Amino acid sequence: MSDFIRIINHERRLNAALKDLSIDELKEVQHKLNNVVNKREAEAEELERERQQKREKIAELKRTMQEAGIDISDILEDEIGGKPIAKASRKRAPKPPKYEFTDENGDRKTWTGQGRMPKALQKAVDNGRPLSDFLIR
């Protein structure tokens, strides 16, 4: 954070920094600061107005598309070609761990039984231990 911002955000520091200014000079600074604030507020209002207009246009387009029986995937299929776009699938819940084992570092680890078998577990199975010994009961 710059020194200027530290000063302007702290009343005592600001007071000390401005102690040499006359009342007229302080009022001029206040006027300039008010102008900056007013410009920022106007910009924020304009941006929000544009966002609201965009939301309204999108809602209108959605209503029109729904009335016409058109889905967004229909439009995108025509534009990019290829197979129909699949609907967004829901992410499934993670599977609970099925096996528990101790790795090379002595840490207790678990494995769901899906995907590649962890190296420490694979090593134990390769050395003759049955996978059923590691089942979580």
TrEMBL record:
Domain (DNA-binding protein H-NS-like C-terminal) ranges: 89-136
InterPro entries: H-NS-like_N, H-NS_C_dom, H-NS_C_dom_sf, Histone_HNS, Histone_HNS_N
Subcellular location field: Cytoplasm, Nucleoid
Gene3D superfamilies linked to this entry: H-NS histone-like proteins, Histone-like protein H-NS, C-terminal domain
Keywords for the protein's UniProt record, in alphabetical order: Coiled coil, Cytoplasm, DNA-binding
Biased amino acid composition, Basic and acidic residues: 97-110
GO-annotated molecular function: bent DNA binding; DNA-binding transcription repressor activity; minor groove of adenine-thymine-rich DNA binding; protein dimerization activity; structural constituent of chromatin; transcription cis-regulatory region binding
DNA-binding region(s) in UniProt: 114-119
Entry GO CC: cytosol; nucleoid; protein-DNA complex
Coiled-coil region(s): 23-71
Keyword Nucleotidyltransferase attributed: no
Sequence segments annotated as region (Disordered): 83-137
Highest taxon, organism lineage: Bacteria
Family to which this protein belongs: Belongs to the histone-like protein H-NS family.
Protein name: DNA-binding protein
Species for this entry: Idiomarina aquatica
